[in-house]
Design goal:
It is built from 2 helices and 10 strands, in the order ββββαβββββαβ. The chain is of the alpha+beta class and 120 residues long.
Length: 120
């Protein structure tokens, strides 16, 4: 087992890309960068510059497919943050490493749902 700092019942280990999971304000974050962005967004929400802040918001890109062999789960994209700014919905993802899966899902968000993902 990899060494790490213990936080409550969870090990605070690095991911395969070097990010260290964090817990703050009752939420679990995949990296320090993501946690810091949450803190910034909470300040903006308190100041009234944004509203309706959501974390880990799930978008369905393709509904589940029922087949003869087996049922497949839906294809989803989970955004780090979703909020409203100046009457517009903003979807953000805090990225350190852009995986192939992320790039495909980001493109599908634009193509299928018409939503541009803002990368931080």
């Amino acid at each position: 087992m990899k060494a790490g700092r213990r936080l409550g019942n969870m090990w605070n280990r690095r991911s395969k890309y070097g990010a260290v999971k964090q817990i703050y304000d009752g939420h679990r974050f995949d990296s320090i960068k993501e946690m810091n962005r949450y803190k910034e967004l909470k300040l903006l929400e308190s100041a009234g510059e944004i509203s309706d802040l959501h974390l880990q918001y799930r978008f369905t890109l393709i509904e589940s497919q029922k087949g003869k062999i087996r049922n497949e789960r839906p294809l989803t994209y989970v955004a780090d943050f979703w909020y409203v700014k100046d009457g517009e919905v903003v979807v953000e993802d805090v990225k350190g490493m852009k995986t192939k899966e992320y790039i495909i899902k980001r493109k599908l968000m634009k193509y299928i749902l018409g939503i541009e993902v803002v990368e931080i």
